[in-house]
Design goal:
The chain has an eight-stranded antiparallel β-sheet with strand order 13-12-9-10-11-14-18-16, with helices on both faces. A five-stranded parallel β-sheet has the order 22-21-20-26-35. The chain is α/β, with parallel strands linked by helices and about 900 residues long. The termini are far apart. The chain is elongated, with a radius of gyration of 35 Å.
Length: about 900
């Protein structure tokens, strides 16, 4: 029987090999390992049992941990083998990058079949490989060799010339190294001046290369006779050179049908053809630039290293190590049909410093994680990403789920160093609704504007979607915003931003939202559309952060506690993950209702109208439905049921039994309501603040209408909700809504006098006067008023006043509503639309009640955070290590009004100004 002797140079990756082919091929196969002493001692037993003979060789560079074998030592071992077994058929292979060129030389010297130096050189010399790719008309980075003489004699002018040619940053790296050894990203003149010492540390020829902005992928191939028999693709967490700065080295394997996998492997195949590889494995790295262009970076004539092969086997069932050896030996094999699975892997590079915290992430898919450091360890930095603090892996048949884990792990603080806490700011935004989204986008703008490199942002969200929050997570187009499109924006002082976004995305959205497009400034758009805008803008922020190298973590979890002390502040999620904080923004939004909690255990009770799809899916069309509350969320519930074809009459009930006013046409009228005049009445005339305010408002109304007005002008003219809705609807048809403009413009005036009010006056205003004005400020769009009136006409809707209570009758299983002046009614379903809970300290979400028990933060009489009005910083009772902010609804009572879009955005601006300073002008 013919004997094939496989000479393996280096034991690297052999633990991944399935050696069963050695015994099943029908050919006698001997495996001989050539290795140096340091690594030979570490060859595991499961590999040793398949090795027929070992040769102890010398390293080419004794002091280098990544040195290949010396040529003379390896040649002597091969000569010894051939002299003892001259009739064997010899093959020579290595999986170790630093030995691939050595192996090619030995093949040529001993006339062993396989790729010789001429074919392997383009896979070791980065200058040659890029030149070949460029000559084939394919995109690769522009480059040139580093002129060491100019670096020493004219460093400043040399830098200026390179900056003009390549821009900043640009890359300096060895032309024949690997594992990011010797790679330096030149971002400044100071970096370039440091190159002289950097180059002297390494015995390499260096090149300068264009820096490519984009996402780095690896493309991996197996070839036999120029034919590609396997290809795969993975997206890296970060470009590998970033690992020397502590960023993860790792990737997620893309499914074979993924668009990026198809495009990148096709491009990679053309690059391989230009390089002339005939047989064996190739591991290539390709950028996808921000513009979508594919750019070749480099390639090795070997299977991928680290844990990429394990990930491929988990995802596809293909063992690249084994198949590479079969190709080398000329054995037959078949490649399994790739399963529609994916896998990820990652290594955590070592960084210089003292370990103060070690954390385990919570992932959707099962994560295998091993960490080799613990608190108190003092670490030294590494010249390569091959030295790590730990590693992890996961695989799944659900690519989208694994991809969410990939994004979560990307910036997860597995290991926190003392130096991190001293040098980096960790801004944590709790809540990804309107306020949280605006904060993050304004923070990112400020970071990029000032080129800050020491600020990280974490944004936490308990819901599935980041951006819409509770207010704009609507799934129904009947839920309209009560704010004109031209006044809706994420950015302060830029009211056109939402309109501009809608026009930029018109082609994508027009089919879905039909006649809305193009959106006019006076349009009242579905809340769902504004939610898409928020989600889109936050997703764009993530992309911008990635491009700029800013850490922006999206953490899909609820923060349930914050451990606060003068030394450190640490956020804890529901899953037990912990995040260090230098700054915390409470962007908690509207709290869940705190009314009718006694009904929650009963089927047919909905604690909120949202998400609306639950109303459509779970409520029988013939059910008797009671909607408790008569403001905008109650109207949303009614219109969702009506649009779903609800047949039975719907009852809306509240204490007043009145709907909001109807939003009329607002012209360009600007009120003369003057905050200073109101202050004068308070100071000089001794007039009570609220009396002075309402008197000024009344005078402004009389000026607008040109006639004396009764004191009850803003009061409803009817206690019958249907009649009042009909009256205000008709009023909007021909009259300019000056009174609505005044009601809106009163906000600035009220905020001016708010600090002068006692707690009792504030409470009176919020419970009585503000509710009266709120009918006009939070008015409903005309189109919704028309729909309600149509439902009244066809007897599918009624509205009742003086609701006293709602209980559940156990015997009948129905809900009973009682009123002051009419008989009780029974219902099959109750929808609670009474709005947000009035107290943060009694919230059903655990964070603030937990913090309240610690007696660290100050809370106002309304049981919300007490803040400094100019900065929105939370007042504390004792020194703390972090700054805390409570904008918008989290500081109810500190301001007259806290829940309008423009107020939310302005509060976000105040927070960002205090965190990073005002915007540059």
């Amino acid at each position: 029987m013919q004997t094939k002797t496989l000479l393996l140079v280096s034991s690297y990756q052999l633990e991944l090999c399935d050696f069963s082919f050695k015994y099943q091929s029908g050919v006698r196969i001997r495996i001989v390992l050539l290795e140096h002493a340091e690594r030979l001692e570490r060859v595991p037993p499961q590999v040793r049992e398949h090795i027929d003979h070992f040769h102890l060789c010398e390293k080419e560079e004794p002091d280098s941990p990544l040195s290949g074998l010396s040529y003379s030592s390896a040649a002597a071992a091969i000569q010894a083998e051939r002299s003892q077994r001259p009739s064997d058929e010899y093959h020579l292979y290595t999986f170790f990058e630093f030995d691939t060129y050595l192996v090619s030389r030995l093949r040529e010297a001993f006339e062993i079949p396989g790729a010789g130096p001429e074919r392997i050189l383009p896979f070791r010399d980065k200058k040659v490989m890029k030149q070949r790719v460029l000559e084939a008309g394919l995109r690769a980075p522009r480059f040139e060799l580093l002129d060491v003489g100019r670096l020493e004699s004219e460093v400043d002018s040399y830098f200026s010339e390179l900056r003009r040619s390549y821009g900043l940053p640009f890359v300096c790296k060895p032309i024949n190294a690997a594992a990011s050894i010797g790679v330096l990203i030149v971002r400044s003149l100071e970096d370039f001046r440091s190159l002289r010492g950097h180059v002297q540390r390494f015995d390499y020829v260096f090149e300068l290369e264009e820096f490519i902005q984009g996402t780095l992928y690896h493309c991996d191939f197996l070839l036999r006779g120029h034919e590609i028999v396997f290809s795969g693709c993975g997206e890296y967490f970060f470009p590998n050179a970033e690992a020397t700065r502590g960023k993860l080295i790792g990737s997620i394997i893309l499914p074979s049908h993924h668009p990026d996998a198809l495009a990148l492997t096709s491009f990679g195949g053309r690059c391989l053809a230009a390089l002339g590889l005939r047989d064996g494995a190739a591991h290539m790295e390709v950028f996808k630039s921000h513009s979508g262009e594919r750019v070749f970076l480099e390639v090795g004539a070997r299977p991928p290293g680290l844990d990429v092969c394990c990930a491929y086997e988990d995802a596809t069932g293909v063992n690249l190590i084994t198949l590479a050896l079969k190709i080398e030996l000329g054995l037959e094999f078949s490649v399994p049909r790739p399963a529609r699975r994916s896998a990820l892997w990652g290594h955590i590079p070592v960084r210089l410093g003292e370990v103060v915290d070690v954390a385990r992430p919570v992932t959707r898919e099962r994560l295998k994680l091993s960490l080799s450091v613990q608190r108190g360890n003092v670490l030294e930095s590494s010249f390569s990403y091959l030295r790590t603090m730990g590693k992890f892996s996961a695989h799944s048949g659900d690519f989208e789920s694994l991809q969410r884990d990939f994004r979560h792990l990307k910036h997860f603080p597995f290991v926190t160093l003392k130096e991190d806490r001293l040098s980096r700011r960790q801004i944590n935004v709790i809540g990804a609704g309107l306020v949280g989204t605006s904060c993050v986008i304004q923070l990112l703008d400020r970071i990029l504007e000032r080129r800050l490199d020491n600020v990280d942002i974490n944004i936490f969200e308990r819901a599935e979607r980041f951006g819409p929050g509770f207010a704009f997570s609507s799934t129904s187009d009947s839920s309209l915003s009560n704010t004109r499109a031209g006044m809706m924006s994420l950015l302060p002082q830029d009211y056109s931003h939402f309109i501009a976004w809608s026009r930029a995305n018109q082609e994508r959205l027009a089919d879905e939202f039909g006649a809305l497009f193009p959106i006019a400034e006076d349009s009242y758009v579905p809340r769902r559309l504004f939610g898409i805008y928020l989600e889109d803008e936050l997703a764009s922020a993530r992309v911008r952060a990635e491009r700029a190298g800013v850490v922006l973590r999206f953490i899909p979890s609820e923060v349930v506690d914050i451990h606060v002390s003068p030394e450190a502040s640490v956020l804890e999620t529901a899953e037990g993950e912990r995040y260090h904080a230098t700054d915390v923004v409470f962007a908690l939004g509207n709290q869940p209702t705190q009314s009718f909690t006694h009904l929650e255990r009963h089927e047919g009770y909905f604690s909120s109208p949202y998400p609306e799809h639950l109303l459509r899916e779970r409520i029988d069309r013939n059910a008797r439905v009671l909607v408790v509350g008569s403001r905008l969320s109650a109207i949303d519930a009614v219109l969702v049921l009506a649009s779903a074809g609800h047949r039975n009459r719907i009852t809306v009930a509240s204490r007043e039994g009145l709907f909001p006013a109807v939003r009329g046409y607002m012209d360009k009228y600007h009120t003369a309501l003057n905050p200073e005049a109101v202050l004068e009445r308070i100071r000089d005339r001794g007039q009570p603040p609220l009396q002075a305010y309402f008197q000024a408002l009344h005078l402004a109304l009389e000026e607008v209408y040109g006639r004396p007005l009764p004191d009850d002008f803003l009061e409803p003219s009817s206690e019958d909700g249907r009649s009042e809705l009909q009256r205000v609807f008709e009023q909007t048809q021909g009259d300019l809504a000056h009174w609505q403009k005044l009601a809106v413009s009163m906000i600035e005036c009220m905020e001016t006098i708010w600090p002068f009010l006692s707690h009792e006056e504030r409470e009176s205003f919020l419970e009585s006067d503000y509710k009266k004005l709120f009918r006009y400020i939070a008015a409903l769009p005309v189109v919704n008023a028309r729909r309600l009136l149509e439902l009244f006409t066809c007897r599918r809707l009624e509205i009742q006043a003086r609701l006293q209570s709602v209980t559940h009758d156990e015997r009948s299983g129905r809900f009973i509503a009682t009123y002051e002046s009419r008989s009780p009614e029974s219902f099959d379903v109750v929808i609670n639309a009474t709005g947000t809970g009035p107290s943060l300290l009694k919230s059903r979400w655990p964070l603030v009640p937990t913090l309240g028990k610690r007696d660290i933060f100050e809370f106002n009489a309304f049981e919300h955070f007490s803040v400094h009005r100019e900065t929105l910083r939370v007042r504390t009772k004792s020194p703390v290590s972090a700054r805390f902010y409570a904008p918008a609804t989290c500081c109810r009572g500190e301001f007259a009004i806290t829940n309008f879009i423009d107020i939310c955005i302005e509060h976000a601006r105040l927070v960002v100004d205090d965190l990073l300073g005002p915007r540059d002008r």
